[in-house]
Design goal:
6 copies of one chain form a homohexamer. The first copy, chain A, is α/β, with parallel strands linked by helices. Chain A has one domain: Phosphoenolpyruvate-binding domains (TIM Barrel), CATH 3.20.20. The first copy, chain A, has 13 helices and 8 strands. Chain A has an 8-stranded parallel barrel, surrounded by 7 helices. In chain A, α4 packs parallel to α5. The N and C termini of chain A lie far apart (54 Å).
Chain lengths: 250, 250, 250, 250, 250, 250
């Protein structure tokens, strides 16, 4: 079975720079896959992606040296399994706030006896290889999102869930549920972000985090995070457009 | 009928900063339309856009304060007319190298007796207004691309074509047909770019030009050009991705 | 943040004529948006619309003076949030039969602390404005569908749910769950429809209702309803086709 | 090979009421196919239809008792052949103004030695039957559009083209090229419409015509026309919406 | 209402050969519908099909003499109802492991008072007929998938659920949950497959089963199964491609 | 620039087994790309493929060890160039019957001074590499289809066209234009097929040919052909379906 580039990199002590696709388009995904990201996550939660387009985008980035991941819209087994069957090598699940929710999520990612994933890797076997079933449980990655104050309260219980590979921190929702406005970087939120990664180290769970730009990704690596997302294609396009227009209208 | 923003701006002596859409996606087009461009051109020639997506993209940008244009794939009347019927307010036609080719193009843009455009503005009338037929010939813009050495040789004849509104210079193909590699900005090509805009002034024809960034757009305005394109969404996304990845991996 | 036209109209004491889109097509939606409706609802429950097309349809109607709404397929937080992130200004949720179901629904419509909506208004911020987060909770509308005898039994409890803005009555399912055939307008169903709007007045909750045509909408306004739907694009097209064919074949 | 319903009806002396699809949607096409039209034409010229959607629409209406036709965007052999291969049983070609243009068109509709249609009826053979090749030349219909004053001047020559089955009159473009505004029904245009059908009778060529409603179709039948179109889905939906809104807002 | 071909065949004592569509494509579905299958199932669980494409595929196969079915992604009422509204005549639901899960599933398939299906058969009424509501509960088929050891343990309880029409056995997941590798045909799994069909006979519940090829379908018929699937389009295309390539490279 | 696998194989004296995609679907294309074909041709002429789907299919097969090609619908420069810009490494052009038609075709495939291809390899540069412009003229392949008796008459002139890389024989159209029914393999057609490959050898032009199955491909290799197509996905799926159904119904 084709290896998971993120796992390999982590085993070599490297950090992962993750790209974030929120536009329902195969070419923008391919552009990002060819730009140097280590992994690309197709965002079905807040991004404008339906399932059909996710399949085509997974196909469009399969020829590049990146690990394809999907953030599913919600903690629902059907879409987790559909995305894995379509060839995703990692699943990020939003709003995992309790141990039970975490167990429900990771169970959907693993074949029995380690979970309840249904068998039928229609495209995954073509992308991953004929021995997909034998290695899938050990190759694919799951990320439970820690993004509410409730999840932080339950952090130890969540991190104790067997079969959990990693968490993914959503600073915006974390801020909102703590009573702040997104992107204001309050100290209480920052402290919490630090607390999460430190707790993860204790449980030997990898930690990823959403960031607005490359500079912040680097800072999060320095803080101990294993994966940082430069968010997102839509934002990059907006910022670049505005900057160039300003240059033209100077 | 809804006014043509480019014409209005030109009448007030303003230059136009044009955005360029090469990804077949309604959201990237909408992002650009909301970023401050004066006009957006959907590129059906080298961009990855089929007609069906062009319609949806025209719809997606109609609520913004931009003028919607399309570069058609080739000098063929059917697609020129289809794009106008879908609500485009300007058409850029590639590879107009002779007076006859220019006449064929502009004829497709105008209803009789000024051309041979067929009547049926199915969406254009909804976007433009019920009096569309009465004002379309005077409101919509056509741009003949000057992008080969042959076209430059025939420049005076092309610019003499009645009903031609503007030209649009393609520096890459100009360079290629002059024997150079694109984007190397040879002096001979630069001289030609200057020659074109100066000749346009003589014929009272507006001139637009493709540019790699905002800074170049500004330089072309200074040279006398009336419209400059910041090209393109795909390039903006690539560059922004690479820069942020570099920041993350520093 | 762009205002909610329905709320503004209601504040001025006006009733809302709502259009209903069941065909997965951007142009039919745009036609309806340009025809004079006050709001357009994209029907993901019984209409033939998947999420990807809903996004494109929301884009296609954004330039018109209507309030865009979506009826989600079911009381599931993921799709409620996805549609809000795509720019819907109102959500109609089917089959809200108990207080708990109503709480679950409205919670998905509001950011903390008033609900559990996840933050990421990727398109909504472009459509609504940069201050979207600050005003979304007070601007967007939620409608719980009252369409079963169970819901009618629980009406007082449902209407007591804090954060509920409005109900939306489905006469067909109401008839079916009361043991009747849809569209037969039994007295018992009619009495129930009257009972619902009267109860809503007591709780200061707005009431909308599905209607087969404009005449019925007017009657429902007279009965006290605040919003009436002329249902639906598919039915309008069928009826118009049959009438014109009959005229041709006379 | 499955019979051509239009030909059969004409052989029985019946006239054809044709529906017109300008929205790129399989369901609106299916609705029309189920409403009682004798044939449905998918309009690729002024309608918002790309080829891919045309295929899906042809599939969606294949189970109904109608004859499927396509108006191609222009007199280009490639799209004529593609639509026939996709299962169209009739092709309407716009802007056939000369004998040469007519010959070019009908040649694309027929296999050698009667034309130059390329062989490969990928879907047509599934829809039409395994003996498609043997009967296609005699089963499929071609309509040359007569819609300019030039075409009227060349009418006898056009109607003399061997292999031409029928003409289709476009009153709007006819009016425009005669110097009038569409839909004003000037006497000169009306006389011309009458002249065309009378000339067709002389050459034993069938005649169809575009009409705004069923009443006009009936009038054209009385004038001698063999096929009349009720135009179009978009117009029917607009009119029905406006009428019902007016009823609601009375 | 249009009859259900599977029910009719079963009443005549015939077995059903079912085709399986996992590619999101209207033409591959139509090819299968025209190839001689008795029914076609569109697989939304492991197949690469989103809802929008399912609608178009249901349309594309409606003209053929097959019964259209859908395997939904999961036991969720919203998608069960959406597929029925789109015209499916049978629903296969994965992972029905308990009596309660079975009740939840079949309830979504039936109108009150026999279930909680919401009324709005937007396309189903066009495909099925105007009396759809009156006969739907007795015409449409539901299949609960028995594919885990837990389901086998609960088999009697599941088969006792009123309104359950049939079960559908998934041998791969059955093998996985019993600790085996899919497609290895262990005796314990085979015994279980036999046990299921025998138990079904006792409860007068029909039984279908997934098979890798036609030969196995025949064997399952001999074992007492009422429906056998030749799985799937993707596998058929892969095998046929490899065989022909081998012939070419001999 | 990424190498052209067909050219490399030919240089090593190997023959090419080409797959043929006529279904507008990324997954069926990917399945074929993973099945062992040396090249895959997306058929826009008789296949049901529009341009937008072609782009997505080219993306879906880019990660596999095959050479991606497109058969364009017709000898029109716009689509030839659009497909090259989308990343096709070979273009097959139908109905090349004269030297002039051949010159027109090959000119569209080459940048100046060797042709008139317009510059803008938006996706091709991502797939092929940053030095795409420098090597494209020498890397990409063009195939002129010889498929009419007229083309055979003009064979020497066509094969003399500078910049022509290869021909591609269409036996069905060849048969039709010679007065036969497709797939009947008349001796006159067979002689002609032999004559073409022998003439190609004289001009040092490679020769490919359409075949119904792998066995015929092998026979054509023995006859001297350099590339043979196993046609097509649709046929493979039909045949495999019918065979397995027969096995089930034995």
């Amino acid at each position: 079975m084709k290896k998971n580039g993120i796992k390999d990199a982590w085993n070599e002590g490297k950090s992962i720079v993750n790209g974030w696709s929120s536009m329902a388009n195969t070419f923008s995904a391919e552009i990002m896959a060819a730009s140097g990201f280590d992994s690309i996550t197709l965002d079905m939660q807040h991004g404008l992606l339906g399932y059909q387009k996710v399949v085509e985008m997974l196909q469009a980035i399969s020829g590049y040296d990146i690990t394809p991941m999907v953030r599913v819209p919600w903690n629902e087994p059907s879409m987790v399994m559909k995305c894995l069957d379509a060839g995703a090598y990692g699943i990020i699940c939003p709003m995992v706030n309790t141990k039970e929710e975490c167990e429900r999520f990771v169970s959907a990612c693993k074949y029995a006896p380690r979970g309840n994933r249904s068998f039928g890797p229609v495209r995954a076997r073509i992308y991953g290889g004929d021995d997909y079933f034998l290695h899938a449980n050990d190759t694919l990655l799951n990320f439970a999102m820690i993004e509410t104050s409730e999840a932080v309260d339950n952090l130890d219980k969540i991190l104790s869930v067997e079969e959990l590979d990693a968490v993914y921190v959503g600073p915006s929702d974390l801020a909102v549920t703590m009573g702040y406005i997104p992107y204001t970087y309050e100290k209480e939120v920052e402290d919490c972000i630090k607390h999460i990664v430190e707790t993860c180290k204790k449980y030997n769970i990898k930690a990823g985090i959403h960031c607005p730009d490359g500079k912040t990704v680097k800072e999060r690596f320095d803080m101990g995070y294993d994966l940082g997302t430069i968010s997102a294609d839509a934002a990059l396009l907006t910022q670049a457009s505005k900057r160039e227009i300003a240059n033209a209208k100077k």
